Amino acid sequence: MKVREVLGRSDYALISELIPSGSRVLDLGCGGGGLLAWLKENKQVDARGVELKRELVQQAIARGVTVYQGDLEASLSEYPDQAFDYVTLSQTLQETRQPLMVINEMLRIGSRAIIAFPNFGHWRVRLSHLFSGGAPKTALFPYEWHSSPNMHYLTVLDFEESIRTQGWTVERRLFLSGHISGTILPNLMAEVAVYMFRR
Q1: 47 in helix, strand or coil?
Q2: Does residue 3 surpass a pLDDT of 80?
Q3: Terminal Cα-to-Cα distance of the chain (whole angstroms)
Q4: pLDDT for 165
Q5: CATH number attached to the domain at 10-120+151-198
Q6: CB under 8 Å, gap of 24 or more: what pairs does 161-167 form?
Q7: pLDDT tens-digit readout, 22-55
Q8: Domain-wise residue ranges, the chain
């Protein structure tokens, strides 16, 4: 099934479909606040964000979004339990130092977590690694090993194992390859995985 785009990203389109109108939303690693501004305008959400880079925080504020500047891992403990309906983390989980701590904090401060992450089990990543013999590089992962923001190279299979061992309840699993959503062999075929889950 072909997926539309929101702000040029198919994962944003999937996330926006999962969040109901009027929700309280916290977006971790929100960048310039584009998704939050879109949700605020189109779904009237109470939009908040956390972003490390000052210039991106300024962009978000210019869009009319309330954003806290800081390290998301250090700032999560400042939020009270169940302060939000949804806590989102898109394309950032693999850059965190303590991903399980981040996810558990997301589930503490929000009723539901929505996480989108690049699947390092995708066939192009596997082939790149196999044929180059070096750190995998593809259009989705164009980084040299020394300049990559990615610290944890997770796959759909890895995340499913974490779901099982942590006892989280998955409400939706969505998988993207380019602009196509599908469910066939997601660990091999999906470039990006989107999960909505709760405790």
Answers
A1: strand
A2: no
A3: 29
A4: 97
A5: 3.40.50.150
A6: 162/100, 162/103, 163/195, 163/197, 166/100, 166/103, 166/104, 167/199
A7: 999 999 999 999 999 999 999 999 999 999 999 9
A8: 10-120+151-198
